Automatic annotation (TrEMBL):
CDD domains: PBP2_Bug_TTT (cd07012). The keyword Signal applies. Belongs to the UPF0065 (bug) family. It comes from the Bacteria. It comes from Falsiroseomonas oleicola. Residues 1-21 form the signal peptide. PANTHER family: BLR1237 PROTEIN, TRICARBOXYLATE-BINDING PROTEIN. Keywords: Signal. The keyword Signal applies. This is Tripartite tricarboxylate transporter substrate binding protein.
Length: 329
């Protein structure tokens, strides 16, 4: 029995061991993991947690260092990594901003193609974008809010954490999906000001990633009435999705992916992917991310990651085109 268990364990580890052997000379120095945003946010938490767990899986002396390079909606850090050697010693945390909304909104000023100029490695986590209303709002579900907006064109305002944010694009998608709603968008300078605006009732509704709103919603400062994800979320199981509210195909989420410079060696990509998946499958990692409203993804492949990024970018481009948005810097 022991021999059989050892054989099964060896078989299960074979893909990871094979990828490890193919890139045996790597890493021969520190692997830098760039976060293109300031320290302290949910993206920073995820990257540091994953890097800490990944490093031992890359080799007995492997080291990963997390570096924050913020600016221009993540473009500065992303372009920095894009220009580095594609030898596997520099990787990037990609988000809807860096690989979706900003390139879609500002194609002439974004210095890279989010699909063609990077090597896709792994999907790390996802979180729904949620629809929230002030605590004294009469609207208890998305259907009621949409019906009121249709009956009162131009009378409402709604908030996001900034022009070009994934919350902004989710709001525009609602307008389009519901047949051309008319409401004024108020872009705030981040998630915290949006939370304050919802708490004070400065806007009729707002869109933001779940992690930014969950704690305040649980404290009763405002109410979450809709999920942008295809399925309900375990943190708020009573909150319906926008698809359940009658908006077929509505999908709005934030996500984090691991990418590197274009044309990284496939063997190194395979090792990074395997290490990321193993790190994200750890129960303590999943639990820690869940408290931040992030659902860990531990089964992605480089090919699936590339297809995911391409599909998300195409979706954002479609929203920008249909909503006729232009946010040139």
């Amino acid at each position: 029995m022991l021999t059989r268990r050892l054989a099964l364990a060896a078989f299960a580890a074979a893909p990871f061991a094979s990828a490890f052997a193919q890139g045996a000379a790597w890493p021969d120095r520190v692997v830098s993991f760039t976060i293109p945003f300031p320290a302290g946010g949910s993206a920073d938490l995820l990257a540091r947690l994953v890097a800490d767990r990944m490093a031992p899986l890359l080799g007995p002396s492997a080291r990963m260092v997390v570096e924050n390079r913020a600016g221009a909606g993540g473009v500065i850090g992303s372009d920095y990594v894009r220009r580095l050697p594609a030898d596997g010693h520099a990787i990037l945390l990609g988000t809807p901003s860096t690989h979706g909304t900003v390139p879609a909104l500002q194609p002439d000023t974004t210095p890279y193609d989010p699909v063609a100029d990077f090597t896709a490695i792994a999907i790390l986590g996802r979180a729904p974008i949620v629809l929230a209303v002030p605590k004294d709002s009469p609207h208890r579900d998305p259907q009621a809010l949409i019906a009121w907006l249709r009956a009162n064109p131009g009378r409402a305002s709604w908030g996001s954490s900034g022009s070009g944010s994934v919350g902004h694009l989710a709001g525009e998608l609602l307008n389009l999906s519901a047949g051309g709603l008319q409401a004024e968008h108020i872009p705030y300078r981040g998630g915290a000001p949006l939370v304050e605006a919802l708490t004070k009732g400065e806007v009729q509704f707002g869109w933001e990633p779940l992690g930014s709103l969950a704690a305040a919603a649980r404290d009763g400062l405002f109410r979450i009435i809709g999920m942008g994800s295809p399925a309900r979320h375990p943190l708020f199981p009573d909150v319906p999705t926008l698809q359940e509210a009658g908006l077929a195909g509505f999908a709005a989420s934030t996500w984090n992916v691991m990418v590197g410079p274009k044309a990284m060696p496939p063997a190194i990509v395979a090792r990074l992917n395997a290490a990321a998946n193993r790190a994200l499958a750890l129960e303590d990692v999943k639990a820690r991310l869940a408290t931040a409203g992030i659902d860990a993804v531990s089964d992605s492949t480089p090919e699936a990651t590339a297809a995911f990024i391409a599909a998300e970018f195409a979706k954002f481009k479609d929203i920008v085109t249909r909503a006729r948005l232009n946010l040139a810097r």
